[in-house]
Amino acid sequence: MDIWIWSVRLTRTRSIASDACRGGHVRVNGVRVKPAHVVRVGDEVRLRHEGRERIVVVSRVITKRVGAPVAAECYVDKSPPPPPREETVTVAVRARGAGRPTKRERRSIDKLLGRTVTEERDRRPPME
After folding, report:
1. Could you identify which of 16, 79, 96, 99 might form a hypothetical disulfide with 11, taking C-beta atoms 3.0 to 4.6 angstroms apart as the criterion?
2. Does the predicted model carry a pTM greater than 0.90?
3. Which residue pairs, CB below 8 angstroms and at least 24 apart, start in 75-80?
């Protein structure tokens, strides 16, 4: 089982596939399986990996890792579509104790916060 999962590129390494089997994250036809389980054509394999569940039906049994186009022909993917990726907001991160920000960093912080040059002047106290 672990060799087939790795061969069709459902996991990056064989050890990850083996650990998934031992951890109970792989089911064949609804039954948890060990890494040494024999895969047959027509088996429904459910793999919980990287936060999502992959559901595939075996259409061809292989024992050597192959390229992605060939690997895609070895199974029929019945997985639900992955959840939409949430848009990440860029956050300015500075190392603690790095001192004052440089002029370039200040400009990028102002751009991130949506400030303009006139707002910057208005924010400063008047000089005496």
Report:
1. 16
2. no
3. 75/8, 75/45, 78/44, 79/52, 79/53, 79/54, 79/55, 80/53, 80/55
